Amino acid sequence: MSTLFESTSIKGLKLRNRLVRSATWEGMGDPDGRPTEKLAKYYTTLARGGVGLIISSYTAVRPEGRQLPGQLSIHTDDFADDYRRLTRAVHSAGGAIILQMVHTGGQTKAEHIGRRPLAPSAVKVSLFPSEPAELTHSDIRDIVTAFGQAAARAKAWGFDGVQMHGAHGYLINQFLSPLTNRRTDKYGGNPENRRRFLMQVYREVRQAVGGDFPVMIKLNADDFLEGGLNRDEALAAARELDNGGIDAIEVSSGTGASGKNGPIRAKIDAPEKEGYNLDLARGIQSAVGCPVMVVGGFRSYDVAEKAVCMDKMDYVALSRPLILEPALPNRWQRGDRGPAQCISCNKCFLPGMKEGGIYCVQERRKQRTQQTQQTQ
Questions:
Q1: Which of 54, 244, 323, 354 is deepest in the core (most CB within 10 A)?
Q2: Residues sharing a CB contact under 8 Å with residue 67, sequence separation 6 or more, in sequence order
Q3: What is the pLDDT of residues 318-364, one digit of tens each?
Q4: With left for phi above 0 and alpha for psi between -120 and 50, is residue 22 left, alpha or beta?
Q5: Three-state SS string across 9-73, please?
Q6: Is pLDDT of 372 > 80?
Q7: How many whole angstroms separate alpha carbon 296 and alpha carbon 277?
Q8: Which residues contact 279 (CB under 8 A, 6 or more apart)?
Q9: CB–CB of 96/75 below 8 Å?
Q10: pLDDT digits (tens, 9 = 90+) for 66-82
Q11: What pTM did the predictor assign?
C-alpha cells in the first residue's frame, strides 16, 4: 500500500515523499521579474522542511503575462545567474524544484503592463478586470514559442522539471473555457479547437526540453463558473495530455470569479472541509495513466494519508500550511501527526502586495505580542 512518506520518482526525478508544495505567488520577485535572494532563502527553508517537491510560484513566460507585483518572469536570458543561484540553493538543502510557467492573459491588469491585456476573445467577463484584446494568430504563435523558451531556460538553469499553469482562469484555462473563448477559428468553436492552444504549448515545451525531462500541468477539472470549463471537457483535456506523454497532472478547480468555489478557500477548520478537489481528482485519475496530484485544503495528516492510501492519489499538494509551518512534513514524518496550524484566513497574501513577501500574519502578530510582553 502506498503511503505519504514513500519515496517515488517522476520521469527519473526522485522524490523523498508524496507531499508537494503547490505553486503560490510569494511577491518576492524584483520589479523586472527576476528571483531575489529572499526568495532563494524561502525555498531553501521549504526544502529543509521536508516537502518532497517544490513547485515555484507562477512565472510569466512574457512580460505582458505578469499579473501581480513581485511576480517572477523567465522571459529573458538576463536572469540566468539569479535562477541558477535559486536552484542551487534548493538542491544544496536536499530539495527538488520545478518551474511553473504561466501567461495570465485577460486576468492581467493594464496598469501593470502598460497595455491592454491579451485573451482568446475580446469579452468582458467577471474574471477579467477589463475587456482584453483578442489574440491574433501571430500573438498565439509568439506565446507558444515563449513557453518553449521558458522551459528550455528552466532546464538549463537547474530546475528539475516544469509545470504549465492550465488552471485558475489564466491563459491556457481561458482558451479551454467556453466563457472566455468565443473564437470561431481553429482555436475555438468546439472542445477540440479550444484544446488546440494547450496542446500546442505542451508540444512546444516537450520539444524544447526533450523526452527525459519532467513536464507537468496544473489543470482545472471544473471552473465552477456558469458557461466555463466543465468536468467533461476537462476530462477530455486530461486524456489528450496523457496520450501525448504528460508526466503528471495536478488537479485544481475554480477561478478568481468562482466565489466560494474559488481555488483558495477560507476557513478550512475541519477534516470534512479538506481535500475539496478529491472527487474531481478521482475522475481525472480514472481516465489517465500518468501520476495525479491533488491540491485543495489539506491540513491534516490523516486526510492526506487517506488521499494516498484509500483514494489512490499519487501526490498531495498544499501550500498555505507551509507558509506558517515550512517544516510540517518533517513534523508529520517524525510522528507528531497533529494538524497544520494554518487557520485558512488567507491574510498571508496581503504582505506580499505591500511588504515584498508573504508570511503568516497571525503568527507575526503573535510574535510581536510576545516580544512586547517580554520588554514590559
A1: 54
A2: 58, 60, 104, 107, 108, 109, 112
A3: 999 999 999 999 999 999 999 999 999 999 989 988 889 999 998 88
A4: beta
A5: EECCEEECCCEEECCCCCCCECCCCCECHHHHHHHHHHHHCCCCEEECCCEECCHHHCCCCCCCE
A6: no
A7: 6
A8: none
A9: no
A10: 999 899 999 999 999 99
A11: 0.96
Kindly name the residue from 42, 43, 58, 170 that is annotated as catalytic. 170
C-alpha cell, 230:
466543465
Classify residue 340 by its DSSP letter. Answer: P
Homologous superfamily (CATH) for 8-375:
Aldolase class I (3.20.20.70)
Cα–Cα distance for residue pair 74/151, rounded to 1 Å: 9
> Percent of the chain scored above 90 by pLDDT?
91
Chain position carrying cell 523526452: 211
* Total number of residues shown for the chain: 376
User: Do residues 143 and 103 make contact, with C-beta atoms less than 8 angstroms apart?
Assistant: yes
Residue pointed to by grid coordinates 534548493: 90
Q: Residue type for 197, please?
A: F
